[in-house]
Specification:
N-(1-d-carboxylethyl)-l-norvaline Dehydrogenase, domain 2, elongated, alpha/beta, 290 residues
């Protein structure tokens, strides 16, 4: 079987690990460095990805393109690829709503590509058993073999485009939504002066919860800038299903207040994070017209 060339857009922590997993499966993996940061260059080099400089060159070289980017720019990335008339297989593996996934699919299909919907669950794929790539759509079975020998487990859903994204939304709506709720609860308790009493009560009745709060901050603060768009996509998905969307919009707002911790060396403490959340709330109150 001839070697397949896979283009990865764009190799952040997750994207670089997906590219490395495809290389383990025998593919050549390329990326486009134009306009990308020094950190992205370093990740791509460490993952063994070949730089083809521009998106136009990546489109020309690739038989499969995998998009792994912040959800808010997934549609823009798809439009850019479609603009170069990419006519092979396009995998959108972003944390978007089924509705957004289908719009992305329509965009790349108008450009001539075959669309595969994807959703990634788990951390960057560095060890076997940690990370799953769910795929859906008629061409999903064509993509699965690319990762057969790497640490990324591929699961094909026997349903149409949008199913993989729906599964990702359902999963992240709980994990990231619950983390946001716990952080917000602790911020509220702090604002009302009952945080210490709440923790003591939790230790009696829900003993694992105080530690989960600390873990929510450790796991979320530095990636909060990405979670804003993800929670907004969850809200869009819930609304499209006829369900209330306000909970995940509130989660998006909470993560927006933690965006300052992007790329910091270490996450803030729970005390620091809740202080920032409350201070921004106070600042907003002061800016509102009387």
């Amino acid at each position: 079987m001839a070697q397949v060339t896979v283009g990865v857009l764009h190799p952040g922590e997750m994207g670089a690990s997906v590219g490395a997993a495809a290389r383990r499966g025998g593919a050549e993996v390329v990326w486009a460095s134009a306009g990308r940061s020094a950190a992205t260059h370093a990740r791509a080099a460490a993952a063994g990805l070949r730089d083809v400089s521009t998106l136009q060159h990546l489109v020309k070289a690739s038989e499969v393109i995998v998009s792994v980017c912040p959800p808010g720019v997934a549609a823009d990335v798809a439009r850019a690829v479609a603009g170069y008339r990419f006519s092979r297989v396009y995998v959108d593996a972003n944390a978007v709503s089924p509705e957004t996934a289908r719009k992305v699919g329509a965009t790349v299909e108008q450009g001539g590509a075959t669309f595969v919907d994807g959703g990634i669950i788990g951390p960057p794929a560095r060890s076997a058993g940690s990370t799953r790539l769910y795929l859906s759509g008629p061409a999903a079975q064509q993509v699965a073999p690319l990762f057969k020998d790497g640490p990324l487990e591929v699961i094909v859903l026997e349903s149409g485009a949008g199913a993989a994204s729906a599964l990702k939304v359902a999963f992240a709506s709980y994990t990231k939504g619950t983390a946001a709720l716990l952080i917000a609860i602790r911020a509220f308790a702090r604002a009302e002066g009952v945080d210490a009493a709440l923790v003591k009560e939790w230790e009696r009745t829900l003993p694992g919860l105080p530690g989960q709060c600390e873990g929510a901050v450790r796991g979320s603060a530095r990636k909060a800038w990405r979670f804003v768009g993800e929670m907004e996509e969850s809200a869009t998905a819930f609304k499209a299903a006829g369900l209330p969307d306000s909970f995940h919009r509130a989660a998006a707002e909470l993560y927006r207040r933690l965006e300052r911790y992007k790329d910091t060396d270490k996450p803030p403490s729970l005390e620091e994070a809740t202080a920032v959340i409350l201070q921004l709330s106070q600042d907003e109150k002061e800016l509102r017209p009387c």
